């Protein structure tokens, strides 16, 4: 049974620590994954989610009680949570996993942890998260979470309008043909797209204030969730380097070149 929206709304915002978007990705020497000894930052889509939650909190000051940021990862994920707190989140939850297991976290495991947090630390009325993480690009966590919770979902949001008196959200979604407007009843899960907003920079005073905001630590075991991966990565390789192209004078020459390259076998 879906819980009905309460008079005071609480928002949960999952954030992930990723390799910074400006870093050139390289495969590690063991070919088991990418080199992670580089600069990290908050997943850009999650930054948008934090910004949207904070804007809603500022817009509905008398109706939105709290914005809670949550991150599932190693101890270094606390840096990401402090960034979310400096952007305006009220509290933070850190579900700590060991260094050896952080790189194998799968969307279903993350969704199960988030469902457990909603059950144990809730009630929450809205979960806002990025549509995907830029490291693994699965783009599945929000949808899986909504399914596990039995909540409505509005994905790839480029616009969010809340009507808290009626208990719903009107969400403009990015789709192949352009955009569409959907209405979802609270509680709900919303995933954010790039056009939703422009995240703010955390000011120095807010960074200092963030150090004093509450940050609670948990483990998957505390929540009764098994995060053992179901997939095994056998090998990671860099894509082949692209070579320069060449111009052809007509279709016949193009076909001959494709035959020589083995692209058109048997033709």
UniProtKB/TrEMBL annotation:
GO biological process: amino acid catabolic process; fatty acid beta-oxidation using acyl-CoA dehydrogenase
Electron transfer flavoprotein alpha/beta-subunit N-terminal domain residues: 32-227
Gene Ontology cellular component terms for the protein in this record: mitochondrial matrix
InterPro entries recorded: ET-Flavoprotein_bsu_CS, ETF_a/b_N, ETF_b, ETF_beta_N, Rossmann-like_a/b/a_fold
Coiled coil regions, renumbered to chain: none
SMART domains in UniProt: ETF
Principal localisation: mitochondrion
A GO MF label: electron transfer activity
Necessary cofactors: AMP; FAD
The organism's place on the tree of life at top rank: Eukaryota
One Pfam family recorded for the sequence: ETF
The protein, known as: Probable electron transfer flavoprotein subunit beta
């Amino acid at each position: 049974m879906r819980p009905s929206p309460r008079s005071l709304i609480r928002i949960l915002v999952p954030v992930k620590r990723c390799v910074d978007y400006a870093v050139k990705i390289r495969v590690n020497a063991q070919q088991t994954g990418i080199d992670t000894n580089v600069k990290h930052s908050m997943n850009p889509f999650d930054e948008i989610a934090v910004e949207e939650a904070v804007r809603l909190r500022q817009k509905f000051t008398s109706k939105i009680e709290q914005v809670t940021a949550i991150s599932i990862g190693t101890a270094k994920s606390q840096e990401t949570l402090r960034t979310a707190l400096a952007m305006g989140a009220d509290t933070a939850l850190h579900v700590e996993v060991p260094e050896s297991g952080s790189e194998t976290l799968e969307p279903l495991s993350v969704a199960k942890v988030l469902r457990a947090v909603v059950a144990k630390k809730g009630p929450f009325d809205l979960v806002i998260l990025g549509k995907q993480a830029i490291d693994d690009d699965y783009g599945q966590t929000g949808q899986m979470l909504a399914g596990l919770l039995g909540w409505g979902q509005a994905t790839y949001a480029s616009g969010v309008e809340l009507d808290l008196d009626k208990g719903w959200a009107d969400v403009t979604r990015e789709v192949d043909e352009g955009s569409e407007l959907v209405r979802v009843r609270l509680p709900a899960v919303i995933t954010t797209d790039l056009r939703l907003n422009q995240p703010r920079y955390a000011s120095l005073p807010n960074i200092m204030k963030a150090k004093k905001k509450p940050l609670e630590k948990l483990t998957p075991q505390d929540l009764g969730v098994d995060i053992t991966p179901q997939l095994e990565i056998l090998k990671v390789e860099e894509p082949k380097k692209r070579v320069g192209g060449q111009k052809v004078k007509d279709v016949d020459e193009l076909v001959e070149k494709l035959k020589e390259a083995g692209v058109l076998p048997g033709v």
